[in-house]
């Protein structure tokens, strides 16, 4: 195997890991891609990520193998660099990786806490009950859940949105496996497409925004390509839906106190993060952490005024003779922000740590510089970015985008938006290509499956290519 094909092979492997931004440090040392430590490191990471991809079958949390791999890779790097008298270079790269991860961790932690708070206040339950109780037919529910997934995911992230819509589909679909499978595919495509034109819709877009390649407002040109990416497969799949009406029963859901105000605080938090980044040029995470303070103070307000609020509502319920209302009041508990923090997806956050640190080691050893030379120097960047999207269907879109950011190729705004689009929506091609797809396979086990999604892959590919063509046509001025 000559050097070119070896580089491409390593590129496929390396593209499953996020960025370290330590290229400047590694430039002081010769490439170690052909050394024993380099080969062992790439083998360790490859084995770890294969175990991650088999998570559903092994019942092993995905954070465990990458945490172990990261420790082993950096232990080997530390030993070699210390022997060569360059341990300061390794320490500098390590600290830079930790800083990058800290920004990601804190940002996601605040976002997850707000989403968890909304869930605890029953906002998502109320939305689900409203959709179930309206008596829509299968085709109407298909479009309603898809459109809502598309427009909610830019704010609430694609994973949470997909799970919410899937719960509705499972509740109304009953034993109609055909409808559930098509509806879940539609939700995955819609959630991934909706998250592609907003920094808050997906971690891939968040990373591009935090890296400073695309500003908050500059994501907007991706709106129409994202719409096309969703609509093309949705229109085709809609012709294969049953025309009957599901049997549903309406369930009343009462929002807990402060639910709507938490939405307002979340919007204010997003605005704060954007302002810190756009006006002060600080990392957006500073604004997000300030937004966590908004939620903490509001939680304090809800706790201190709980007794007064319950007393007033109890008097109203007694006056009306509403026994059901009295029972609901008895189950109300004070709002606790730190309990919401504990409900964050810690396995996911630790998984990101492991992958960030693994790629930091691979980058220091010279692998990503070699891949970048092949993909973004010898290839046309447009084709390279299209390939990135296809790769994201195999190994998850988040680490693919992280790897591109680590390479940090010199590209036009149009190409940065293109890779943001492809990495975001490319994960829809396979059910394992995005967190939304993997989560829905678990939520709708046996009804939404890998092969059930795979047979619609050609239709989803049509949407993928159509969205790229729309972007290249409408936003051609950004490629100059």
Automatic annotation (TrEMBL):
Primary site of residence: membrane
Position of the signal peptide: 1-22
Q: Where is the Citrate transporter-like domain?
A: 49-424
Recorded hits in InterPro entries, A to Z, give: Cit_transptr-like_dom (IPR004680), NhaD-like (IPR045016)
What's the name of the protein?
Answer: Na(+)/H(+) antiporter NhaD
- Show the stretches that span the lipid bilayer: 32-54, 66-83, 98-117, 138-156, 219-241, 262-279, 285-302, 349-370, 382-405, 417-444, 456-479
What are the entry keywords? Antiport, Ion transport, Membrane, Signal, Sodium, Sodium transport, Transmembrane, Transmembrane helix, Transport
The record describes its membrane topology as: Multi-pass membrane protein
Family designation: Belongs to the NhaD Na(+)/H(+) (TC 2.A.62) antiporter family.
Q: Where in the cell is it found?
A: Membrane
NCBIfam families found in the cross-reference section: NhaD_1
